[in-house]
Amino acid sequence: MPHENSAPCLPRSAALALIAGGVLAAARPAAAQTAALSVRIGAQAIDAAGEAFYGDQAGIFVRNGITPQVTLLPNGATIINAVLAGDLDVGEANPMQVAAAIARGIPLQMIAPAVLYSKRDANANLVVAKDSPLKSPKDLVGTTLGVGSLGDFNQISVLAWLDANGIARESVHFVEIPFGQVGAALQRGTIQAGFITEPFKGDAVRAGQIRDFADTYLAVAPELAVVVWFTTKAWLQKNADAVKKLVKGIYATALYSNTHYAETGAILAKIAKMDPATVAVMKRLYFATSNQRRYVEPILRVAAKYGALPRPVFFEEYSAF
Asked: Would you tell me which of 90, 115, 286, 321 could form a disulfide with 231, CB atoms 3.0–4.6 Å apart?
């Protein structure tokens, strides 16, 4: 783990302004740290960030020497801001959001990959209306495509997919559409294609609104970490023992989650306030059990290629281990 005692220290206001889309939302106050190995964790109430609450609810973190205090927040940018403000110790976020912070001099680092995506997942993320005439990549020329957030990894993966299929990036217009609104927007014709994730995709399929069009993640690499665990360099340096035990607990939770879908599904339904029947038919996710540079490095490369970062970020500065 790098030790950089001279790491840049930005004023809080400057740090918050540098995170794309980062507006510090009012978060549930984190409990005060009551023990040496108590860790305040920020996550979203979704399967992709499930390690935080799966490991908590199943007692895995406690068995590995960590008392977790999990705070649920609406998105990765808010979680990053809460970590920077000192309200949380660690969090889970989109790898591009962490890279954008590092590229701008904010001293964050990944401590572990979380969710992995590969061919085994086989769940198309780019969809069109069920009765859409669009059939091939070339049919997207001149269309409007909805993504959850402009400039995030999801949009970058679409750009990589367009390039791989010989379609000029400038020939497609992008707009922001929340995942839960993609099906309705396609039906209205507001967009002609949209990026969507679970559980929203399952809802739109059951409503007869959408059909699969493409899997854009695989245009970046055969296997990717699409969510990562991160913290500040300062917290890493001051809490070496807690970090070691936390990472051990993360990978132990991954092993458990990858083989106990019924148990984690029940936890997800409770935490996310979802219908258990909906969770039961969801395409569930797979978590990394070790840190491999191939999980993140392709993301850093395409982010630099498509101008999503103000400067290239390399794996050695991105990952703490």
From this structure: 90
Compute the chain's Rg from CA coordinates.
19
In a 13 Å sphere around the CA of 240, the CA atoms on its Cβ side amount to 4
Q: What 3-state DSSP class applies to 53?
A: helix
One-letter identity of residue 65: G
Residue 153: CA count within 13 A, CB half-sphere: 28
| DSSP character at residue 44 | -
Q: Which residue has the tokens 């909906």?
A: 278
How far is it, in rounded angstroms, from Cα 98 to Cα 50? 18
pTM value?
Answer: 0.80
In the CATH scheme, what is the code of domain 126-219? Answer: 3.40.190.10
Task: Answer yes or no: are the C-beta atoms of 126 and 190 closer than 8 Å.
Answer: no
Residue 177 near residue 148, CB atoms below 8 Å: yes
The alpha helices in 190-296, defined as continuous H runs, are: 200-206, 233-238, 240-257, 261-271, 276-280
Summarize pLDDT for 254-300 with one digit per residue, the tens.
Answer: 999 999 999 999 999 999 999 999 899 888 899 999 999 999 999 99
Cα 91 to its chain centre, rounded Å, is 11
> Domain limits of the chain?
12-118+223-318, 126-219
* pLDDT recorded at residue 19: 38
> What order do you get walking across the sheet with 115-118 strand by strand?
223-225, 115-118, 286-287
What pLDDT, on a 0 to 100 scale, did the predictor assign at position 88? 98
**Which stretches in the chain have pLDDT values below 70?**
1-36
Question: Which pLDDT value is given to residue 299?
Answer: 96
Residues paired with 212 in a beta bridge = 127
Which residue, among 116, 115, 117, 111, has the nearest Cα to 41 in the 3D structure? 111
Partnered with residue 319 across adjacent β-strands are 110
CA 86-228-61 angle, 5° bins: 70
Using the Cα atoms of residue 245, residue 255, residue 113 and residue 290 in order, give the sign of their dihedral.
positive
Beta strands 228-232 and 108-113: pairing type? antiparallel
